[in-house]
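Translate sequence into structure tokens.
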Amino acid sequence: MIGGLLVILLAAGPAMYAPGGEVRQNTAPPEGRANRQPGDLSPNEVVGMLDAYALVQAQEALQLNDAQYGTFVGRLKALQETRRKNQRARNQLVQDLRRLTAPQVTTLDEAAVRDRLKALRELDDRSAADLRRAYDSLDEVLDLRQQARFRIFEETIERRKMDLLMRARQRAARRGGTQ
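Result follows.
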């Protein structure tokens, strides 16, 4: 399973990165799905595949029974969406700060910068509370061993994602250098 996912993700590498190596923020390339190269995936498609992979692997890693699995899936998806929603909001605030403090800005709008910094602190506080609630909800489905194994599982999945993304980036760089 990981081999097939790796192939797909490696093929998706160029679609995931903007020039300069930053992960693309938009979900669709400007030319649309019809004009993409075969194998190119949008970042949302890659995230969806990784989420699906995590769900399948979680059942085995946590040894979830059928009764737990249905509830677990819904709550894990809620946790993932909470993370994504908060990360999107955080990215937007950081982007605002980047724009407000860019080197070409000659007069700093201190009020706007303070406002964005305050909003960022408030978002970080809300995000932490949202994540605690999502984890608490997920933990209700799991026994103590499964809760611990889930935290370990999350770290393992994150390491795999980073590894896959780095490989995709390296492959995209090799392709860019040989053309």
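Note: The chain has five helices and no strands.
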